[in-house]
Amino acid sequence: MLVGLLCGGHVLIEGVPGLAKTLAAKTLARLLDLDFQRIQFTPDLLPADLTGTPIYHPPSGEFRTRKGPVFTQVLLADEINRAPAKVQSALLEAMEEGQVTLGETSHRLPDPFFVLATQNPLEQEGTYPLPEAQLDRFFLKLHVDYPSREAEQRMVIAHSSGSAPTPRLRIGREQLAAAREQVREIHLAPELLDHLLDLTAASREPQRFGADQLAPLIAHGISPRGSIALARAAKALAFIRGRSYVVPDDLYSIAHPVLRHRLLLSYEAEADGHTPDQIIDQLLKTLPTP
């Protein structure tokens, strides 16, 4: 989540209910002193419920703008796949353009503007799955799994005794803005850039890189947007780890969240139970580490 925020990207979180996705978003906003809004996506939601709308004011004879919950700094879009296509498109347009048009007036969104969208991978009734082209707009896709037994034990004890920690402000908005500038200055060596480009190229033409067995499993490879996102995410991760340069482990650590929703598998691969993460693992093993 911090990598996405530092890079100015947005994050899609996939996981079953009850894994504290909402709590994580609220905690992040409080730690960084950012405004937070949550909207529950439902099938009857309208774009205006998200973006707002001009409202006529009879005494003055003017239209006044009522801004929706999208005008915040950290927006939790809960169960985004429950909203119809028009609402999804309205949110994705705001994510891409950084502004919302209400009537004839365009309104800039706050800076930073960070969207955390969640979706439930199990329950598919009454849902509108995000098309692949819209998934590609998300900077990262995270999988949240069940916690370990030890972690869950600590959670149960903390909540049952009322001793759950309260997040406190750690980094102000000015420090966050400065950190985002520093991330851009992180050094990515030419050899690592070539390695990154080989990885995305291998997803498009696996035969050229000696991965013939992967060709039938990949329907569409990773787009150039994926290459850009991987480079930026690796820089942000290096910054978080306290380095001014990227090492191969930064690329490998962040490759799956950046690429898993940008790699489209063939029907045969899905029928055989392959996942994008498995294909990414095989691509990484195929290419020699610089």
From TrEMBL:
<dbReference type="InterPro" id="IPR011703">
    <property type="entry name" value="ATPase_AAA-3"/>
</dbReference>
<comment type="similarity">
    <text>Belongs to the MoxR family.</text>
</comment>
<dbReference type="Pfam" id="PF17863">
    <property type="entry name" value="AAA_lid_2"/>
</dbReference>
<feature type="domain" description="ChlI/MoxR AAA lid">
    <location>
        <begin position="216"/>
        <end position="282"/>
    </location>
</feature>
<dbReference type="InterPro" id="IPR050764">
    <property type="entry name" value="CbbQ/NirQ/NorQ/GpvN"/>
</dbReference>
<keyword id="KW-0547">Nucleotide-binding</keyword>
<dbReference type="GO" id="GO:0005524">
    <property type="term" value="F:ATP binding"/>
</dbReference>
<dbReference type="InterPro" id="IPR041628">
    <property type="entry name" value="ChlI/MoxR_AAA_lid"/>
</dbReference>
<feature type="domain" description="ATPase AAA-3">
    <location>
        <begin position="10"/>
        <end position="140"/>
    </location>
</feature>
<dbReference type="InterPro" id="IPR027417">
    <property type="entry name" value="P-loop_NTPase"/>
</dbReference>
<dbReference type="GO" id="GO:0016887">
    <property type="term" value="F:ATP hydrolysis activity"/>
</dbReference>
<protein>
    <submittedName>
        <fullName>ATPase</fullName>
    </submittedName>
</protein>
<dbReference type="Pfam" id="PF07726">
    <property type="entry name" value="AAA_3"/>
</dbReference>
<keyword id="KW-0067">ATP-binding</keyword>
